[in-house]
Amino acid sequence: MIPSQNVRGFAYVGAVRELGAAVELGAFRAVPLAGWPDLRALVRAQAPLLSAPRAGGPELCEICHGPAGHGSPRCFPCDLHLQCAQGSLADVVVPVAFAVKGGSHARHLWQYKSARPPVGTRDAAATMLRALLLVFLRDHGACLWRTARIAGPTHLAVVPTARGRPGVHPLRELVEDYLTVPWAELSPRPGGEQVRDLDPDRFSAGPLPGARVLMIDDTWTTGSSAQSAAMALRRAGAGSVVTVVLGRHIRRAEAATAGLGPGAMPFRPRSCAVHVAAR
Ligand SMILES: [Zn+2]
Ligand SMILES: [Zn+2]
What we know:
globular, binds zinc ion
């Protein structure tokens, strides 16, 4: 059965369960979190520094919502992936925000999983990203499911890290205490670690007959990794794959010339790249 909740008149069918003060925070136990108002405050705090694709926005790639090639509805990598593997890729890809190189969001995206910065820096980045992802799923999950024409996810998955580091993926660690849907396990295949192109054999997953998978990833650069993971999920039997990425990587010059910075295309918590207004 798909977990559901009704929050302030908005029927939400999907993954995020209500937070409570008593929730164990695992590795982030020191971070005080009470519930949605706190998470929303964290999203509002970072919003002025963020930019994000919006529905009906100008000339973005129809797949990853990054800058599209001139005269093309898609960016070069997405176009290539489509030519190679149409029908095996994610049904919907939605970035929560753009990760402009050198910007605060891009910095959070490496800090939260880096072993190097002080623990305080890492935890602060993790807190920001967790708030952004949970609030996004809660507010825009319905937009994603409608776009993919599914009732809601039956499974969650995370794109394995490139080097296949042992242990729980830092992104999963960030949110798994708050999500009720079971996780589909994806693992890198031996020898596939160095491959940078789209590769159906890069990852493998256990059987997932008819599953509707919400796959989360931190950064989308070419999308090869996330789309290879989507192919592995489909090969395992998944009927649909919806991919949500925290940051669609954008080069600085690209953000300026394509008008994708916070000034030209601000992040708006009430909207998303595939937004459907709630009735
Ligand atoms: Zn693209
Ligand atoms: Zn939306």
